[in-house]
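Entry 14. Two folds queued back to back today. First construct below, sequence then structure tokens.
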Amino acid sequence: MEGLSTKGSFTDEGSNAIRSEVLAGIRERIADYTETRLPDMDRYGIDVQVLSLTAPGLQVQPDPHLATNDAVLANDHFASVIKTHPDRFAGF
């Protein structure tokens, strides 16, 4: 099945460390919402994707003021992406 992956797809045999080429691909794609993500969604039949912060989240920030500011920045960023493509993205 196209798109199916196994642990060996991401790590070297006998290791839990993510292979460097996989990590590089993730870094390139994680903040891209239009040039890669939308075509991938179309290819795999995904109509809508819910955007959210991943772990570790803002709860690791010990300063409540900084955590609040970071939450506003993240929410504003996601809102901008969603506003540009409201039929393809939602936020959590």
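Second construct, same run, same settings:
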Amino acid sequence: MNNTKSVKQVKSAIRTMSLFQVFAEHQRPLTLGELAHYMQAPKSSCYELIHTLAGLGYITLIDGGKSYYPSRRLSEMVDQINLFNPIKERVQFCLKKLRDETGETVFVGRIQGLQAVYSEVFEGTHSIRYTANSGDVKPLHASALGRALLANIPENEQSKLLSEIKLTRFTDQTITRKKQLKEQLDQEKYAGVSITFGDSSGDIAGIAAPLLLNAHMLAVGIAGPNSRVEANVDRYRKNILRTIGQILNY
């Protein structure tokens, strides 16, 4: 027997979240008529909802109430909630563990425009190590992070990026032909990891693998001196893949 009970949906909660979603999509002050149109709701219901939220300090009335926009109070509340983000905590815990296991600098990153960017970096424990900071950008075609991301995004997004990025040569190892890059990306997607040895910096190697988390394509990896990464490439690869599994099953 199935004892699962369906939960009754609260219409006012649905309408409130729909309101904020409309603001997020349009990113500008909206009139009552526009809100009613986008929310597909009666003007009277939207009016009551907006002025209730305004009374609580979450909506700002602009031009004497001709249009509306979420207030700073809402943003500040979201920031307070995000001070403890269980997903972020989980990722950080697993990445620090990977750093401790390998001694190498560990990172997680994403695509930003035509580059890859480090979202989090945990510096290695070796005296000679790769150094980077959160917010640093890397080339999509010449870094393990960039290629792990590029290889695993949807085909249409990949094609668009490949048509737009410039394949700058950094070293003799840099791939500078798009046909060759596409072949390399296909191989790395099949292998599950992307590995670079001196592609963007002559003495730095990287290993990265994709992490699809909450519908966001990220990549997790390590970077360090060529010689040390080459000597441990199989172990590092396994450590990264195990870490990703731990994040997804935490």
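Quick look at the second one. The first strand starts at residue 59 and ends at 62. The chain is about 50% helix and 20% strand.
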